Amino acid sequence: MTIASSSPPSRLPLGDAKGAGTDRRTARRATAREERGDGRLAAVFIAPALLGFLVFLLWPTLRGVYLSFTRFNLLTPAEWVGLDNYVRMVHDPIFWDSMGVTVEYVVINIGVQTVSALAIAVLLQRLTQSAVLRGIVLTPYLMSNVVAGIVWLWILDTQLGIGNEIVAGLGFDRIPFLADETWAIPTIALINVWRHVGYTALLLFAGLMAIPNDMYEAAKVDGASEWRMFWRITMPLLRPVLAVVLIMTVIGSFQVFDTVAVTTAGGPANATNVLQFYIYGAAFGRFQFGYASAMSVALLVVLSAVTVLQYRLTRAGRSDLG
């Protein structure tokens, strides 16, 4: 029996093998130099934002946490008092009243704003995608909160406001929108809804535009109505974007301040004394910076807990669009 001989595997000449190894090392060095260059360029672009984060966010936060354990009034050095500020906060009825007022504001603002913004976004997507119309929807957001508050303060004035003139012209009694304990917080919430709803609607509109139109066309072929498509297609696929928008709007709503400051200044009878306004009064009205810092830390903890809870309940990190 004849056994076929197999030829030995071919090998590069020694000089060629060395040359190939040198070329690979040279290529690796060039790639490493390019990566270092890209890293330096990225660091240059990131540096301003990082500096702003450290100076205007991280350092004030750490400084505020430290001051929450002290007695400090700007005129004397901070005096360490441990948990005294937090104990005072727990037993402070005005703090809890302010927290309740803030929660009431958040519920009204988020509920009305989210439903209104979602309706506007769906109408923009299903009926028209005019850039001009989107610009009109966004117009109130371009106005500052202070200007919006002053304008609405004039419109809703009980005696001279055009809003109450219309109410009186319709035969109803004038309504003290910003001077009555029952009306004040809902009125402030609706003022901020008016200002922010366009921006929120455009965020949701961007999420709606990411949903493939083929799904709606297939549903129409199957005879689905617009209402059914909204609940079976739009809402499930919009959920991650809606969750992020809710997190952003809830955080912003808990920090309401300027609208209250220019319209009611916390009145009447503390009916609009939201937590941010109470913190401001403690710090810059009574110079109790330690106690104000403790309440700020408490607000930070509440916002962190609410954000984590919202993120998990809404499954914001997962999408049904696969």
From TrEMBL:
<feature type="transmembrane region" description="Helical">
    <location>
        <begin position="136"/>
        <end position="155"/>
    </location>
</feature>
<feature type="transmembrane region" description="Helical">
    <location>
        <begin position="237"/>
        <end position="257"/>
    </location>
</feature>
<keyword id="KW-0472">Membrane</keyword>
<keyword id="KW-0812">Transmembrane</keyword>
<feature type="domain" description="ABC transmembrane type-1">
    <location>
        <begin position="99"/>
        <end position="310"/>
    </location>
</feature>
<keyword id="KW-1133">Transmembrane helix</keyword>
<dbReference type="InterPro" id="IPR000515">
    <property type="entry name" value="MetI-like"/>
</dbReference>
<feature type="region of interest" description="Disordered">
    <location>
        <begin position="1"/>
        <end position="34"/>
    </location>
</feature>
<feature type="transmembrane region" description="Helical">
    <location>
        <begin position="277"/>
        <end position="309"/>
    </location>
</feature>
<comment type="similarity">
    <text>Belongs to the binding-protein-dependent transport system permease family.</text>
</comment>
<dbReference type="InterPro" id="IPR051393">
    <property type="entry name" value="ABC_transporter_permease"/>
</dbReference>
<dbReference type="InterPro" id="IPR035906">
    <property type="entry name" value="MetI-like_sf"/>
</dbReference>
<dbReference type="Pfam" id="PF00528">
    <property type="entry name" value="BPD_transp_1"/>
</dbReference>
<keyword id="KW-1003">Cell membrane</keyword>
<feature type="compositionally biased region" description="Basic and acidic residues">
    <location>
        <begin position="21"/>
        <end position="34"/>
    </location>
</feature>
<feature type="transmembrane region" description="Helical">
    <location>
        <begin position="41"/>
        <end position="62"/>
    </location>
</feature>
<feature type="transmembrane region" description="Helical">
    <location>
        <begin position="105"/>
        <end position="124"/>
    </location>
</feature>
<protein>
    <submittedName>
        <fullName>Sugar ABC transporter permease</fullName>
    </submittedName>
</protein>
<keyword id="KW-0813">Transport</keyword>
